[in-house]
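Aim 2, interim progress: modelling of the fe (iii) ion-bound target.
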Amino acid sequence: MERSEALEIVKAHLTEHRYIHTIGVMETAIELAKENNISTKKAEIAAIFHDYAKFRPKSEMKKIIMDQKMDPRLLHFNSELWHAPVGAYLVEKEVGIKDRDILNAIKYHTSGYEKMTLLDKIIYLADYIEPGRHFPGVEEVREMSSVDFDKALIMAVKNTIGFLLRKNQPVFPDTFVFYNSLLLMEK
Ligand code: DGI
Ligand code: FE
Ligand code: FE
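Predicted structure of the complex, ligand included:
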């Protein structure tokens, strides 16, 4: 699918703010894909559609999680997590994207999981460091991203977990599993 067509489709599902974020993720993901020698096309399409389901009503997302027999633990954790797996499902069903690599990158872009591929990691990190992000610690991760990709990823996951802990929020188990897998891989 051409970039212009993909952007036109996703735009109708997003706010202006979220569309600008999406463009930032797309540009960042393409840069990271080049730096890490993987397909920029898959990174481009996964980035464009990563937040496709961000504005679906919670009731609709909940129904999809149940009907499609997705991980039932999702329902006990923050509903912010839901747009990622639901997005992967809807992008396949409504947009017709069949590429498993792209769909998995969308599916795991919020929580992460144990066996993240390089494309999954690129979308996760691009979502975190795109130029529109301004939270504490992001600049350090941004700088590290082109020096040591894995180190930047660990910093990003660590910051996210720390952010949830400080807010007394539960952390989805896959996020810890992702964090552990990155640290154990380093050795
Ligand atoms: O959709 P975006 O705002 O672009 O970013 P995202 O898909 O990474 O999701 C945003 C939020 O999800 C992030 O601010 C933290 C929140 N969140 C809630 N519970 C969890 C969680 N993130 C992770 N990784 N794990 C959780 O358990
Ligand atoms: Fe998201
Ligand atoms: Fe996002």
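The CA atoms of residues 85 and 110 lie 9 Å apart. DSSP finds ten helices and no strands in the chain.
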